[in-house]
Write the structure tokens for this entry.
Amino acid sequence: MKRIDCLRAIYPELEDCAVVTIMGAVAAELYSLGHRPNFFYLEHAMGLASSVGLGIALSQPERKVVVIDGDGSVLMNLGGLTTLARYAPRNLVHLVFDNEVLLSVGGGAPGGFKWFTTATSTGSDLAAIARGAGIRRAQLVRELDDFTEAALDGLKGDELTCVVAKVDAEMPASFLIDVHMLENRFEFARALQRMQAKTATGGTT
Amino acid sequence: MPVSATNSKVVYDAIKAAGVRLVSALPETWLVHLVRLADEDPDMILVRLAKEEEGVGISTGAHFAGLRTALLMQNHGFLQSINGIASLALLYKIPLLLLITDRGTMGERDPWQTEGGKYTRKVLDALNLVRDELNRPDEVRGKVAKAMTLAQSSLSPVALLLGRDLMWEEPTA
């Protein structure tokens, strides 16, 4: 299963969501499908994407929040899964692409990232960890159809959902993101607050 | 309980007056009343953390969504949060109101607090964060308001150290 195919499958559903991604391949591939102001690419601070998502979800309970995470990042903030479970925001979907390596580190040579395996390569099961943390709807998927169904269920549902997707460890076609970090940060905040104002007034414009 | 309930209330009221709607916290003795006050306040979102660095992410998300926040942490929790502060708050220009209990300084009885206490200010200074100290109840409201104003205008973390004289009441023998 390829990340980009997973992203393509859910992309049309992300229009009204607040989307927070980790850095590297995930951010670049989502960007390659077409940037939107409601996409925030957290270009550093590994592990905190889910915390940023939780902050948004608690602040705007009417907004669907989608965090697109990775195994390396989740492993840096396993405690954050317990915090997510503790508050269990019904409007948050946590998608975790598990390629079993720290791919975006690169490794300095073609395929060098293959030396940077994470503990999911030796059996650590992030979906089981998420369930153990208290996230009731957490599942591991290996096929695109299963990913699409689980992710769309989460997006349309009303319960904290975690989907761990085993994906190929493949570099993205490009790492280009032609939106400056600060530009992205300010446009994202503006988009969320504009969307909120619209919701608050019940307006249609 | 020698943690000052009275002065904790003064700090909590100041946070509320500064417009804070979400507080993240990790338990620490000096914060017991502040956490309780946040928990009992139906207008406050309290997020209890597993580790303090999460609070940087949560406050970032809340800021994007338009909410003012405060982070309650011990100085060792601040030390634990450094990468989040550098690689998220400072890198992305995120306002944070850091309320940090100033453990391990003059009068500290817990041996385990004494090492980290020597670095709190140096690390704040190394990060170039503006900081001030809260030691008297009469200065709390003004300093919290000004710290929030600066955090919002500079889009940067600002730190207030909660001092022993404010937070701790020595039992009279």
